[in-house]
Amino acid sequence: MKKIIKTDRLYLREFVMDDAFHLYKMNSDPEVLHYTGDEPFRSEEAAAHFIQDYDFYTKHNMGRWAMIHNEDDTFLGWCGLKYHKEERIVEVGYRLYQKYWGKGYATEAAKAAIKYGFEKLRLKVIYAHVHVANKASHRVAQKAGLSFVKDFVYDGKPAKLYHITNPHYSLKEIDAQEAYKVRHPVLRKGKPIEACKFDEDRDISTLHMGMYFKNDLVGVVTFTENSHPLFKETLQFQLRGMAVLEAYRNKRIGEHLVSHGETVLNKRGVTRIWLNARKNATAFYKRLDYVICSKEFEVPIFGPHFQMTKKI
């Protein structure tokens, strides 16, 4: 039994097989599932199969955790973090036996799960969705510090989307020397420091963006003034040197770096950005609305590339 988090009244731990009884019983209450869209387990055995097959702990280092009372080890429900692969977001969720509603347990557990996600997992943003009519869950989300984003449809039901951002992250404009601290070990590992330097790094127009976690620089990107003959715009910038330390990948840090850099450049009057993207990075840039504008070409040592561009 692996305990994950402890609060004043609760602890959160990974599911164990004995929890099958509670998951089956709790989900058999129509009021508990009223706003969720979930179906109840057909039997306690089905709940046991769910626990047996639950692989989020090993796959994503997070998941739904059993919510247990400190004093007497009573199973109250569950709370935790869920990674949604298609949307590439992490969401906090909670569910309790009806008899434990209104006692602040969900809020206490949600706050603890969010803190764990921010400090231990170093997540950039955590989301929550709540059925539009579920007033109690709206209060929990708000008390846990999440703010309203938009109305939307979730699993065919009207819902509200909330989010909270990690206060330990900050985006800053940096100089070239700072950028090398991440660019070198990520993009030119094992090579001399000179191998990661660009001729335009110290040009007055060059923009270096850095993402910090607390006081540590964890991601960088550089934009240099450089015209491509394929495009007509007088003022063009090339995106270069995108790098995020391994421990901070899959947290959408790269997306935030690029998007913020685009905003800064657009305020300068820039409307065209282009780059030479490694073949295995094209999906990342496509998510940010960059499009391929060349045939595949080979860069010595670094492999196949495509030129990509975006009008901002």
From TrEMBL:
Organism domain of life: Bacteria
Protein's UniProt keywords contain Ion transport: no
Pfam family for this entry, one: Acetyltransf_1
Membrane-spanning intervals of the chain: none
Entry annotated with the keyword NADP: no
A GO molecular function held by the record: acyltransferase activity
InterPro entries reported in the protein's UniProt record: Acyl_CoA_acyltransferase (IPR016181), GNAT_dom (IPR000182), N-acetyltransferase (IPR051531)
Keywords: Acyltransferase, Transferase
Residue ranges of every copy of the N-acetyltransferase domain listed in the record: 10-167, 166-312
Entry EC no(s): 2.3.1.-
Name listed for the protein in its UniProt record: GNAT family N-acetyltransferase
